[in-house]
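Work package 3, deliverable 3.1, input record:
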Amino acid sequence: MSEHITELIVFGALFVLVSAVGFVAARWRRPSTMEHLDEWGLGGRNFGSWITWFLVGGDLYTAYTFVAVPALVFGAGALGFYAVPYTIVIYPMVFLVLIRMWSVSHVHGFVTPADFVRARFGSPTLALVIAITGIVATMPYIALQLVGIEAVLKTMGVTGHLPIIIAFAILAAYTYQSGLRAPALIAFVKDTLIYIVILAAVIYIPAKLGGWGSIFEAAEAKFKASPNTGDGTLLNMNNQLQYITLAFGSALALFLYPHSLTGVLASKNRDVIKRNMSALPAYSFLLGLIALLGFMAISAGIKPIVGENGKPDANTVVPQLFDQMFPDWFAGVAYAAVGIGALVPAAIMSIAAANLFTRNIYKEYLRKDASPADEAKVSKLISLVVKVGAVLCILLLDPQFSIDLQLIGGVIILQTLPAVALGLYTRWFHRAGLIAGWAAGMAAGMWLLYQIPNPASGKAHFGGSAFPLEKLGFDTKMTLYAGILALAVNLLVAAIVTLISRAAKVADGVDATKRADYFADEGDPKVKELDLSAAH
Amino acid sequence: MSDTPPEERAGDRSPWNWLLIPPIVIPLLTFLFNFDEPRLLGFPAFYWLQLAFIVLGVICTSVVYQMTKRKRSAE
């Protein structure tokens, strides 16, 4: 541990700095009162282009991504690069969808995707289903941010869980106090650090390793020597479809996660969102470069640290690379970038999960007359509970379990697509159809994931997201992203049950939204204001 | 404030929106870029081409943003 003393000091100093920023954030763009969910949970719904860029960027491109994507490239090669097409196709894909979601939420004061579903389909049950799916999918994601911090601490020789608990306690305290303003302000520090570290890494490390040509040669040599047929610096016949469906399916899922939507709803108008759809790919470029760190680690001969369970922890590859390549003080900066990079999304995710509980469970089922101040109070408390839960996940369970859960999370959050995303465009689906489709999609998704073994880790089930089509009786070695298959089942069942419900004249919910709501912008009247003017 | 009340707006329709299609489709067509050659600065085509698609995405979304943003008296 003593040889890491410089790294630890730099890491510690930067950590203290952002904690201070987190607490000060409560005074930033200070509202008249913090006792309202729009203020605590959405930062006043008034963020401009720059803040939104940092906030959403800091939210989507998490510390775990920065550690896990290069780890995947290190292990499997080209397949791990799916993160690049994934984060390219997503922005043009959601460009028009998100502005509709922003508008209808602006008019009706929605805070969560489940709020929208409730109003659109007139079904608190469907909203509850969406809210629970969101919470379940988000929890392991928060836990994974801890895995990111732990990978860094391990490399610095810090073991034990106490540092993680302290870090999360501080995070919980300033999120409680400052709400969404804390991660928004910290994101400026986090992203600046990450950009500096990665740009330095992609210039400095290849120069030390003899250029990109020799880095790719070393990677090719490694994959040629490995017995695994799925790896390589290019895709092969069997994993191309997996690459395409994984990129596409992940892109479909990303903005269904409640925390992604939180950043979008916090922006002040539609143009802020549109502008960010063309500015956020700057992070995709960064992510592409980060992915290549996996090849650099191969070329530098990095060996992952062997964890407590006796298995090599691939997530330590990137921190190890930094440790070996950078001078101590800069490695400290790099670790801080990853560590702080975990705090921003963890804060936003816990806020989003807390909002879901407050709006769609507490207010809906426990206390219908809760005032906005009550909502803010409950949300603040729940954000603490969520973080304690995430820490317990890491303390009590094998981290591998969180990784498996996150894999499942991606598949199950996709099952909210028909209600949340298609719901923005069409009211054709019957609420019974959507609930049935969701249930079928969840069951199918679980079954598919259960069937996937992982020969590398010796697991028989939940070994990955690449579903071999031969299991369905096809004579092929091709694999497909399980989430897409489950979504297909979901849509099919939703459509069939919708037709049956219509034919049987089952009562459908009332749509509380109007067509014009989907195009409203900043300054247009909101529902509450309309109600007030009608009362006079 | 917007000039027209929301009820009278035409919605989000615009021919410029078609520009959103290429950056969704092209990065998913692996047969276009799953090659080693030609290399650029030592990068196999697979890697530099996909990084170049990011630029394609930025250009397409920027054009759509510029052509469809609402004219606002406040700005």
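Residues 2-406 of chain A form a domain with the Sodium/glucose cotransporter fold (CATH 1.20.1730.10).
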